[in-house]
Design brief:
The complex is a heterodimer. By secondary structure, chain A is mainly alpha-helical. Chain A has 10 helices and no strands. Chain B has one domain. Classes of the chains: A mainly alpha, B mainly alpha.
């Protein structure tokens, strides 16, 4: 039998939110995010009957420190839902089932929206700002400003929707914003990339612009080759080898 | 010997910066202050040349577009590496040929080694967690906090070691290489930029080509970007 969950005091919410910023602090191959989830949900567990170190608290904390994996920004959804489930007295088996079931969706939604969408988009915006002549502070502010508006909004939304919906939070992940969002972000990133890449290359070349056409040509040919070899080569590793040869040649010739 | 010690002492602010930014990559707070475009610029600020730090940061950011930090996958650690690359480039004069290529090379090698150190960090934490299993299973908040704070501290130390170690190795190596550099400034920079541009463009294609309509947006953007380059 479940009991109504209490309203989380502001201090508890803030403590959970701050701890969520360090949710990957003990990320490892055995438990992945597990200990981080326990660390983030712990302030809420103090509200259980018996308080901190009571039987209910210890049992809940032990449950929450088991294996768990999710995108770090979406871990708040799980932390909020698990806090609500524990404070409502949900059956331990239901909580365990929820923990197992939500790992995949919270990982894939976050990967598509943040790592493959929002992060490259903000990075490209900053590159465009550089190419258009923004100052060093301006470029950094464009990147950190845009990126972290999305970052913190996601964390705050996740924790609050998780606590609001509890174990029924899966419906929130099916919202149109999260389903269609990655595609819109990818299109925006594509447009900005087209503008930013030539501008950034020109900006880095600086006064040595005589060879600009050659640089653009080489970059285009290299990009095509890398795109065709997708998955078989990592460009940055290849660049280490090519730069090493170039440096060696310059020094010994 | 005294000069060497003085140089190592001068690495201290950069080491602290590298440690903090190395921590940001995964552990805390993942606000992406560790991205090269930020980290290199901050390194440039510390050595008194923010704009040169930014130029190194933009070049490294193009490489970083290829390596997004997906979960348990293995990826380079850009926080400490970009501090090293940014600082090595920023301390050189504008006229020094080859400075960008050498700084980028040092940063890419550091990113690779530092990425390996992240794997070791995770393995150590796994063993640590294993040794605490009994306490965690009993719901000990002390064990939870100890593992979390221990992991964060170890990651901070990891970032510091990576940054300091890379600076100790690459600062003299960079000076030696640039002292006997023979290619022109334009060619040297062009090679580094062309490589970065190629990797960045291929990375963008990898991210966007599966989204319906996105290649057309990319093409439209390229037309716009190319026009801007031509007219400004």
């Amino acid at each position: 039998m479940t009991t109504p969950s209490p309203v989380l005091p502001f201090r508890t919410r803030m403590a959970m939110l701050l701890r969520l910023l360090a949710v990957q602090g003990s990320w490892n191959y055995e438990m992945m995010l597990g200990n981080g989830i326990a660390f983030a949900v712990e302030p809420a567990l103090r509200l259980l009957p018996g308080g901190k170190n009571g039987d209910a608290y210890r049992a809940a904390l032990a449950r929450q420190s088991g294996y768990f994996n999710a995108h770090p920004y979406f871990a708040g959804v799980a932390v909020g839902a698990l806090a609500r489930a524990e404070l409502s007295g949900e059956a331990p088996e239901r909580i365990e089932r929820f923990r197992t079931a939500c790992c995949g969706p919270l990982g894939s939604v976050g990967d598509r929206l943040v790592w493959a969408g929002w992060l490259p988009l903000c990075s490209l915006l900053a590159l465009a700002a550089f190419g258009l002549g923004a100052s060093a502070a301006g470029v950094v502010l464009v990147f950190l400003g845009f990126y972290n508006v999305g970052h913190f909004a996601l964390r705050i939304w996740g924790l609050s929707v998780g606590y609001r919906d509890g174990l029924r939070v899966a419906s929130a992940l099916a919202s149109p914003v999260l389903r269609a969002g990655p595609a819109h972000v990818a299109r925006a990133a594509a447009l900005i990339a087209g503008i930013a890449l030539p501008l950034a290359v020109r900006g880095v070349m600086g006064p040595a612009r005589g060879a600009m056409a050659l640089v653009f040509g080489a970059a285009a040919v290299g990009a095509l080759a890398l795109a065709r070899l997708q998955g078989r080569f990592e460009g940055w590793r290849l660049a280490i080898g090519l730069l090493a040869v170039f440096i060696l040649f310059s020094v010994v010739r | 010997m005294r000069d060497l010690l003085m140089e190592w002492l001068s690495f201290l602010p950069l080491t602290i910066l590298g440690a903090v930014l190395g921590l940001d990559v995964v552990s805390f707070p993942q606000a992406m202050i560790s991205r090269p475009i930020v980290a290199s610029t901050l390194a440039g600020v510390l050595v008194g040349a923010p704009l040169r730090g930014l130029i190194a940061g933009v070049t490294l950011e193009l490489f970083a577009l290829e390596t997004l930090p997906f979960g348990a996958s293995r990826y380079p650690e850009w926080g400490s590496a970009a501090v090293v690359g940014g600082a090595l480039f920023a301390v050189q004069r504008e006229t020094t040929a080859g400075a960008l290529g050498v700084a980028v090379f040092a940063a890419l090698v550091t990113a690779s080694v530092s990425g390996w150190s992240m794997i070791q960090h995770r393995k150590i934490l796994g063993r640590w967690a294993g040794s605490m299993r009994e306490f965690l299973a009993r719901g000990s908040s002390t064990a939870v906090n100890r593992l979390q704070i221990g992991g964060l501290t170890l990651d901070l130390v990891r970032g510091a070691i990576m940054t300091f170690g890379a600076l100790v190795v690459f600062a003299p190596v960079s000076r030696a290489i640039l002292g006997s550099w023979t290619f022109s400034s334009a060619l040297s920079r062009g090679v580094a930029v062309a490589l970065a541009g190629a990797v960045g463009a291929a990375a963008v294609w990898k991210v966007v080509h599966t989204t319906k309509g996105a290649p057309w947006y990319l093409l439209g953007g390229l037309v716009l970007g190319g026009t801007l380059v031509a007219i400004t």
